[in-house]
Protein 1
Amino acid sequence: MAVKNILRIGHPLLLETAAPVTAFNLPELDSLVDDMFNTMERKNGVGLAAPQIGIKQRIIVFGMEESQNQRYPDMQPIPVTVLINPEIKQADNEIITGWEGCLSIPGMRGLVPRHRRIRYRGFDQKGKKIEREAEGFHARVVQHEIDHLNGILYPQRIRDMRMFGFEQELNQWQKNRPESG
Ligand code: NI
């Protein structure tokens, strides 16, 4: 088990498409997933995608137990999940904006439109099928992490670049603005 170095925006690997996992229930896969959870937890993240630690495979981890996350203290808990080869579908046409950060873009936040409700499926590290519906912040986190597998970072999704900046500045600035999402 190890805490891995997280690649930051500017690293070309973050812009690549990751490859599907073809073999499950292997010690190497278990240890990679452990490393991803350790890295995410150490950095107080709610999600991490394998390309962020330099692994070009379609693996994401996410989750947030109640009141354990310092970055998003007001959000609903999200089940702690490893999702491999994920597929995602919007559940309806509703789009909402919400503030996002990324461990590959430390200190910054942006207002990002996402589908409010989604269905997603994939596999855990043992090859067991996972299938869920999600909404709100849970749905947002899954969409953000799956974007990483396709070489997309959240600033590419921001519609109004005035809604992108350093978290410290935005915290002050946001007080006078309605926050959506
Ligand atoms: Ni991210």
Note: Residues 102-104, 144, 148 surround nickel (II) ion (CB under 6 Å).
Protein 2
Amino acid sequence: MLEENVLGCLIAHKGEYISGEVLSGKLGVTRAAVWKDIRKLRAEGYGIEAARNKGYRLVYSPDLLTYAEVSEGLVTAYMGRKMYHFDSIGSTNDKARELARSGAPEGTVVTAEQQQNGRGRMGRLWFSPSGKGIYATVILRPSLEPSRVQVITQVVAAAIGTALLSFGIEAKIKWPNDILLDGRKICGILTELSGELGRTYYVTVGFGINVNESGNDIPQELSDFATSIKMSAGIEIPRKKLLCAILNNFEDYYDDFIQTGSAERSIAFCRKYSAVLGKRVDILKDGRHIHACANEIGDDGELIVSLENGGRQAFVSGEVTVRSIADPYTSTNN
Ligand code: BTN
């Protein structure tokens, strides 16, 4: 699959020379067509050396969210095995929905270097500067009641959290769909479904991650709430490697969920790295603010809280703000 175009052949023989003649023979195209592709790849940021009598050699690959770049290190059976990449797009979630409608298989991923109309929850915009963050949406086709689909947000949150740990970054998960570093957001997850009562047709789960933004890449009005991995952890991570690690972990957690019918492994991760459990929170739900203590994340990913009047309530969605540090009297899992 990799050696189906000039780039695939160069990657498969990275560091070695491969002649124009061999390339044109393998691919069944003219040498002029090979040369045209080489020029296009260089314009995309690939470092390709050319030497007389030897041919071409790949010496540098850019940090792009393409299949050719992300798949190095991908160990999945289906997650990310079909990938649609765009330099710029309205929203990867919108594109994924269009592809899902026309039958794209489970695990298909849409990625973009930049989004013009990145969508957040509650109709908000997701700021998506070019080449700095990860903007990706995965198509899933679970046989799941629509009422249980929200748990997939916890599954992907666990996958992203686990992938970050593999780069030495310990992030917190703010139920239901935010990932934080130093109390500020680096990632948001947008899970959408198409279905009818009792039946899910498909799910599109999109995530936006602020990876290599610097201070001046983040709009002023967001800077109190948002940060990037680079700004908080002080390291630049290749986005392609982070996305690869996320997809590997996602397939692992998701398969476990589908095969056992329980998202226990993902939920255990979300509990362990929760930014809200044990905290006094404000939950904005249907225009109402509810003050409570976040006690537990239930088996279906719901947030179980104790209310100020002593009652308990479970939320499957809502906007949570942490109000203060832990209150020892109301924060246990009792
Ligand atoms: C949120 O925190 O409100 C969710 C943000 C989700 C943003 C991602 S970026 C990739 C995908 N495409 C979109 O339009 N939105 C999601």
Note: The longest helix spans residues 239-260.
